[in-house]
Amino acid sequence: MKASLRSLAVLLGLTVVLAGCERPPMDTVQRGYRGNGMEQVANPRLVALQIPKHQAPDPLPPASSEGPKASQIYQNVQVLGNLSAGEFVRTMTAITNWVAPEQGCVYCHNPANFADDSMYTKVVARRMLQMTQHVNADWKPHVGATGVTCFTCHRGQPVPAEIWSAQEAKGRPDSMLGNRFGQNEPSLKVGYSSLPVDPFSTYLLGGEKGSNEIRVASKAALPDRSNPMGTKDAEHTYGLMMHFSGALGVNCTYCHNTRAMGEWANNPPTRNTAWYGIRMLRDLNSTYLDPLQPVYPLGDAPKANCATCHQGAYKPLYGVSMLAEHPELAAPGGSATKVASAAKEKAKK
Question: Are 197 and 274 a contacting pair, CB within 8 Å?
């Protein structure tokens, strides 16, 4: 009897120890020089479960560009008025399928007057259209020729599955047990680690606070006013890195040379892409998303992070582009040139 109990205890112990492990086989791909351990490890069974949610929908039949413009036919068309009436209806139909297939047009429009702006969802949708065009035109260093559409984030849902707000990201408040310091609670945002659960407000918002330097190691032996990096900065940085890993379904070597994480030498090109992505998120959150806060009826405006588009894939929709069928979402722009210039200046230092 005692032997059986001991065997059962051992079995239970092994179950607990191995609960966090994944059974083989695993897929491993080397991404860097041999000897650096720069390998990507993936579970093919989990990848197979991911594939269905990363399928782009079939495009609608094209519409003629001939005829009067949408701005001549419909009232209060502020963004897509340069399209023909047929193209405009096609785009609106596609957006309905991408964002609110169950609710239909009335999710954003007053059915008694489609030109009316009284519904906050319409005001938000118009701003999202402008943001989508801005991403495709001005953030090519991150999205490339693939670009984004409303479907990239929404996937048939009125609200994207992966968003954050400053109110929710902070986690539970302090209690009589002490100051949580914004951490030490299970959160998927940081891989269920004990790291701070809100690295987004620190690094993914524009302005002085949101543009903090993402860094683990200090530039000098002791922090001072010119070198303020400390333990808390390292914890927030690691929290953000955990988010990156989960959002893209990758490990650290996807962007970093593990010989020296902080150095740029011998890094994969993906680290440059990620550098632009961080700055793109700061731009979108501070210019388009956070300013919508007064419009929302429930307080803080939802904001974007890496998971908003990627949703567990190293490339949203695994790199499938929908822009060829919707060129109206790829408006011209030029701010990416300024960002590229800033990157070159940074590399010289």
Answer: no
